[in-house]
Amino acid sequence: MAQYLLLHCEQYSGGIMRSDLLHIARQCGLVTFFSLCSAVPASAAVIYGQAPAAGGASYESSIDFGLHNADTFHLTTGATVDTLEWWGTQADDADGFNVRLFDSLGGSAAAVFECGYSFSSSPCPAAVTSIAAETAGGAALLDLDDRTTFKFSLTGLNISLAAGTNYVFSVAYEPEQWFWLTSDDGDGISYFRGDDADPWIDGSLDMAFSVVGTAVTPPNGVPEPSTLALLGLAVGALTARRARK
């Protein structure tokens, strides 16, 4: 068992021999030792989502047209995001979106991530794709005004998000008017503003979007300080012994 688990931990050993690591594991206890290894990444999946509402209202979101929308989310554990998804009415130029993430609702907050139509220095890593959205039964997903809606996806991302931070996800479409579909999920609050310098204003609705990525699973338990000190002394002694040889 110890030999097997070492395969998952030895890459973090800083060059200490496997035999030394095994000795430390046996002396300190396997549970304590391997709880000190790096957190284990899970498989990519939807780590936050607000599903599109069939027959839901859609709201205009465009910086150039003077009104754009956003919604907030937070994660219970850190994650690396590789895809952002949202639902809305047809967009003839899928590359016409501005996609941004903020970590504050203040008007002066800089984006922690942005790419798209208005950001020539920050092109998106991949083209935004779109497919006609469907209900769970396979029917076309229409909004309140009977407009066909689409699911938009931005892939190829590598965004590190922290646990507990309240992130603001904003999507705006610039070539023409475009409407973001609402969701029946969420906390009942989203945000809008007219200009990038303005603070976000809250509204009583939720927007349809999802965040896809790899969550980081924390280690099982946090070692006591005395345990960390013991392990540090053991590693130091073994390293010094090898240096004398």
Largest sheet composition: 7 strands, antiparallel
Measure the end-to-end span: 30 Å
Low-confidence stretches: 1-18, 30-38
> What is the residue-averaged pLDDT?
80
Helix content: 10-25%
Order of helices and strands: HHHEEEEEEEEEEEEEEEEH
Q: How many helix segments?
A: 4
Relevant terms:
alpha+beta; single chain; seven-stranded antiparallel beta sheet; 245 residues; 4 helices; disordered N terminus; six-stranded antiparallel beta sheet
Describe the protein's architecture and organization.
- With 245 residues, this protein is of the alpha+beta class.
- It is built from four helices and 16 strands.
- The strands form three sheets. Strands 1, 2, 5, 8, 9, 10 and 16 form a seven-stranded antiparallel sheet that branches. The protein has a six-stranded antiparallel sheet with strand order 7-6-11-4-13-14, with no helix packed on it.
- Strand 13 and strand 14 (201-203) form a beta hairpin.
- The longest helix is centred in the C-terminal third of the chain and has 20 residues, at 225-244.
